[in-house]
Automatic annotation (TrEMBL):
It comes from Sphingomonas lacunae. InterPro entries: NAD(P)-bd_dom_sf, Sacchrp_dh-like_C, Sacchrp_dh_NADP-bd. It comes from the Bacteria. This is Saccharopine dehydrogenase family protein. Residues 4-137 form the Saccharopine dehydrogenase NADP binding domain. Residues 141-389 form the Saccharopine dehydrogenase-like C-terminal domain.
Length: 402
């Protein structure tokens, strides 16, 4: 029985609070706060209609540490679940330390004015969380999140050593729009337009954005082109599992998405530096976000499935070299029927609920800043099975040849 404060009322926040409300034995008291309170109220109404549970709502600008500290002091949660944007990670961590609460998020901190993905800023809080006797769990979404849990579970139960790891993120959903992103467009486009980087033999190999394309046949979806990209869990996995010689991240994109993105990039619409328009400073990417469909609005029309997983090759516990593929398939329409949100929000919001459950029940405990692969994967894997993201394990003939 525990009190949680969730910050952020987008698609991910919506799924997480619906799933928390479906588990009242774990989450006895839920408050949802965000910049726009009406979005929290709409989610609270849906939660009440679907589960009968009443959640409290509040308005907060989480860029404001003092205001966030005051909110945490007032609500008195054991845990603050940050489902706002990566820009708010550090201010919410500060507020948690100041008010005395544990912290969890699904995406690593990024400064708003430079697309730079690294954990250094959040890892720098290690000593302060230890001294305060508080826990911070970083990256409890799907990727980062489940993909790292999948990796440690494979290492614990199937491998004596993992040599190579590929993370494959496929969204086979069709929302019927010419161009839209399935999560926050600004974050999505910053991620996709950044140079690709992967870890190989102790160093980062950088290649131009979207320049390495491979076709892969995804169960439940079919063949798709996937692109080599940088993704934040590469850094934490390379740090915490240094035996892995090569770690890569792949994401699928349709040709239409690539075509639109290329044009937007070429005309300067994905720039994150301010330009002056009619005497007013605007950031092109933020303006673009304002004219694109809200990810939360795509739920009703999205059909198809996601398939996200990891392929690991190494020395099996039976002494033989082997390749295992561990993945989850999630259906957009099923996700929407259950929570009113499509599968990209669902596959992030469910692991956010599970990470929060691990922390409030004390299943995962310890002062300091943790990445998810540092913790025991077993209870998390059990909850994935029970709460809507069942996983499947398959042996492949050999390492995938790409
Ligand atoms: P949305 O843009 O749909 O929602 C973000 C929410 O945060 C909105 O309600 C927004 O408010 C609110 N917000 C923004 N700034 C502030 C602020 N300063 N103070 C308070 N609230 C604020 O994003 P998603 O729900 O799609 O994503 C949420 C998070 O999940 C992001 O950090 C994203 O990177 C992460 N994510 C992680 C994934 C993973 O697998 N690990 C996958 C997908 C997403 P408003 O409505 O007023 O704008």
């Amino acid at each position: 029985m525990s009190k949680v404060l969730v910050i952020g009322a987008g698609g991910v926040g919506s799924v997480a609070v619906h799933k928390m409300a479906m588990n009242p034995d774990i989450f006895s008291d839920i408050t949802l706060a965000s910049r726009t309170k009406s979005k929290c109220d709409a989610i609270a109404e849906s939660v009440k209609a679907r589960t009968g549970v009443i959640i409290a709502t509040d308005a907060i600008d989480a860029d404001d540490v003092a205001a966030t500290r005051a909110l945490i002091k007032r609500v008195q949660p054991k845990l603050v679940v940050n489902l706002a944007l990566p820009y708010q990670d550090l201010t919410i961590m500060e507020a948690c330390l100041a008010a005395g609460a544990d912290y969890m998020d699904t995406a690593n901190y990024e400064p708003i004015d430079v697309a730079k993905f690294e954990y250094s800023w959040q890892w720098a809080y290690q000593d302060r969380f230890v001294e305060a006797g508080r826990m911070a769990l970083l990256g409890s979404g799907f990727d980062p999140g489940v993909t790292s849990v999948f990796t440690t579970w494979l290492r614990k139960h199937h491998f004596d050593r993992i040599d190579t790891l590929d993370i494959l993120d496929c969204n086979g959903g069709d929302h019927g729009q010419a161009f839209a992103t399935n999560f926050n467009p600004e974050i999505n486009i910053r991620e996709v337009t950044a140079p690709a980087r992967h870890w190989e033999n102790g160093e980062w190999i950088e290649t131009p954005a979207m320049s390495t394309k491979v076709a892969f046949d995804f169960e439940g979806v079919g063949p798709k082109n996937m692109y080599l990209m940088y993704h934040e869990e590469l850094e934490s996995l390379a740090t915490h599992l240094p035996e892995i010689k090569r770690i890569r991240f792949w994401m699928t994109f349709g040709d239409e998405y690539i075509k639109h993105l290329t044009v937007l990039q070429n005309v300067g619409m994905t720039r994150i530096d301010p330009v002056i328009y009619n005497g007013v400073e605007i950031v092109p990417l933020q303006f673009l976000k304002a004219v694109l469909p809200e990810p939360a609005s795509l739920g009703a029309t999205t059909k198809g499935k996601t398939n996200i997983g990891v392929i690991a090759t190494g020395l099996g516990k039976d002494g033989k070299e082997k390749t295992l593929y561990l993945y989850n398939i999630c259906d957009h329409e099923d996700a929407y029927a259950e929570t009113g949100n499509q599968a990209v929000s669902y596959t992030t919001g469910v692991p956010a609920m599970i990470g929060a459950a691990m922390m409030v029940t004390g299943t995962w405990a310890g002062a300091g800043v943790w990445n998810i692969e540092q913790l025991d994967p077993d209870p998390f894997m059990d909850m994935l099975m029970q709460h809507g993201l069942p996983w499947q394990l398959k042996e492949l003939d050999g390492p995938v040849g790409f």
